[in-house]
Amino acid sequence: FDNNIDKDLKGMLACDSKLSAIRYKRYLDEVGLFESAIVMSPPDTREGHTEVDERKQPEIQDWWKNNVGSQSEDDYTRGVIERFEKDPDLRLIIVVDKLLTGFDEPKNAVLYIDKPLKQHNLLQAIARVNRLHDQKKHGLLIDYRGILAELDTTLARYDELAAENVGGYDPKDIAGLYSQMSTEYRELPALHKALWAIFEGVKNRSDLQQLRAVLMPRMVEEHGQMVDVNLKRRDDFYEALTKFAACLKVALQSVAFFEDTSFTEKDRATYKETLKQLTSLRQMVMQDTGEKVDFDQYAEQVKKLLDRHVAGVKVHESEGLYAVGKMGQKPEDNEPETWSEEKTRNETDLIRTRMTKMIDHEMQDDPYAKEAFSALLRKVIAEAESLFDHPLKQFMLFQEFEEQVANRKLENIPTVFDGHRHAQAYYGVFLKTLAAIFNHKQTDEENQRWIDLAFEIDTIVDKAVRENSLSRPDMEKAVKKELLPLLFSTGQKAGFGVDKAQEIIEQVIQIMRAGPADTLRG
């Protein structure tokens, strides 16, 4: 249980007597891997068909006295159930003729069966681990009594059982209810093949950069929008790897997998290598794309599997070994001149993706810069395509442009705006809205007036935000009240009217909605 069941999931042990339950509990406490609890009836109640007079067994009497005491049986049982549902420390409950019917805990993932169960009692017991939960793909039945051999007969007679009012389900409802673990792990070859099919065309599957290139974000312009053409392939990879890992987990929990002659030791080693290699690749790609890595559901579920079964597996490369544990981390050599051609192209694609996201998502507060850099990006992409045979030159080109984008450096934006992002955005509003005026060469004095006006607007917006932080409508009303006379006066001198003034105000408010100016400075 400790080795194979994820930490947030739980289990039940059904045994045939109170004495067995108490001794199981004592043993589990001595081992000390996790906390368990017993749920059973008082010692003066006979159970099943036993002929033992439990009142004469001091071991049972003593346990009840020490653990239940003066509580009623119902209060004690209710307390254990509540802890089992809510307390992560209580991971397993030991039951004797209790909780095998009518008790539902979705986190319950495994039932250990050490007692006779027949017909509807057997079906009800199975249902205890068959409730849906995000962290479990299936429930496990571990049979110490050989009773699951009767399960096919039990299911075949379910019409008769339904007539006896023990469930009333349609037989179709329970079709495929269970399967042997061997049935599950025999899917491994097909899942393994489907997983590697995603990398069809890769010449060397041991080459990390070739595998990475298949999944790297690759931004291409389609219908005027930059889209990641590898997005679906990454999603397919994540799904295929999750299915393969889940199946391998079942296999490695099963003794039958290691005794099955249809799988060789080489097969088992290959599956482990694949899991380790592609799990590490998955982590690297998710870091490349800025997606969640460390605490996502897959990582949590597969961590124990990797630690227990795959920790010592080495993944081979054509020119030696690479450290799988360091996959996904930033490279130790930061000299692009030393990179392979494949790695250089991968890093170039990463920069291209970062810039696209930066322009599309991080420049909502500066419409002019967003528009200008989008146009420049298209030009850089076209230039890079002409340099396809020179991957290092492509990388250098995109690296230089990324620095320009990060610093929002545009030729027609004065350097005085460095570190004053919203003031720069307001100046960009002038360039965009009053293009007819700015298309004529401005004198230094005229240009300085526009710079001063941008900073003045920035001050007005800052003041409105601070004084009306609890009310956006009041904030916007204050900005309009201050800006309308200011821009009307400016327009009379510069040659634009109220309509343009209103247009500028609306764009200023849109920039203000993107976030407080002071949080973006510097």
Overview of this protein structure:
Residues 60-145 form the Restriction endonuclease type I HsdR second RecA-like helicase domain. The chain has 522 residues and is α/β, with parallel strands linked by helices. The chain folds into 4 domains: 10-178, P-loop containing nucleotide triphosphate hydrolases (Rossmann fold, 3-Layer(aba) Sandwich); 185-309; 345-407; 418-520, no CATH class. It is 55% helix and 8% strand. It has 22 helices and 9 strands. It has helices spanning 18-31, 58-67, 73-86, 119-127, 151-156, 158-163, 181-185, 188-197, 208-215, 231-253, 255-259, 265-289, 297-310, 341-361, 367-385, 391-406, 421-433, 435-438, 444-467, 472-494, 498-513, 517-520, and strands at residues 10-15, 35-39, 90-95, 108-114, 140-143, 219-222, 225-228, 316-317, 320-321. The chain has a 5-stranded parallel sheet with strand order 2-3-1-4-5, sandwiched between helices. The longest helix is centred in the middle third of the chain and has 25 residues, at 265-289. The two termini are 53 Å apart.
Please state how the strands of the largest beta sheet are arranged side by side: 2-3-1-4-5
Number of domains: 4
Largest sheet: 5 strands, parallel
- Helical content band: 55-70%
Molecular shape = elongated
Number of helices: 22
Name of the top-level CATH class of the largest domain: Alpha Beta
Unreliable spans are 47-51, 317-332, 516-522
From the N-terminal CA to the C-terminal CA, the straight-line distance is: 53 Å
CATH superfamily of the largest domain: P-loop containing nucleotide triphosphate hydrolases
According to CATH, the fold-level topology of the largest domain is Rossmann fold
Overall mean confidence score, pLDDT: 81
GO molecular function, one term: helicase activity
Protein name: DEAD/DEAH box helicase
Keywords: ATP-binding, Helicase, Hydrolase, Nucleotide-binding, Restriction system
Pfam families: T1R_D3-like
